[in-house]
Amino acid sequence: MSALIGFSVRLYVAVFGGLERLTDGWFVGLAARFVFASVLLVYFLNSALTKVGPGPFGFLEPSVGAYAQILPAMMEAVSYDTGRIAFFPYGLIVLLGTWAEFLLPVMVVAGLFTRAASLGMIGFVIVMSYVDITGHHVGAATVGALFDGNPGAMIADQRLLWAFVLLVLVLKGPGGLSLDGLLGRLWRGGKRYY
After folding, report:
1. Residue extents of the structural domains in the chain
2. Where are the membrane-spanning stretches (predicted)?
């Protein structure tokens, strides 16, 4: 019996050790970026498009919808007149939030400054969740709760999973198949820094 257990342990270590060696340095980051791209990239880009003002320079002047999404209570207080909201700090928050919603997801997927972009996206998701709960007053079913046995809550459950994928990228990096990996090989003479 002990020979069978010993064989099973050696087989287990050989199979999963080999798998770990085979995927080391490229797979986890690539997989996390793929999951982010397939689940969240279009979501965030579509959301960002609702925040852009009219015309070719709309990215410099966020829409009324951007203010309403990011500063809902303040917009209601000024009857949705963005002219009554000071640029500093509130207009600047809306402008930078709009740009972040465009740039950070693209940077994560491309693997460019991935750790910083992923950390920024985690902050973005936290702020977005806070605004949804306190500013848009989403219901308890939408907020949900951790360990409640219902994995369908948009905020507690789904956004925790979003943050986890991003946390993997913060801690492990994007992997060698990324712009960070390419730039690292070019700038550091092949040394890994991603």
Report:
1. 25-187
2. 26-45, 87-112, 119-140, 160-183
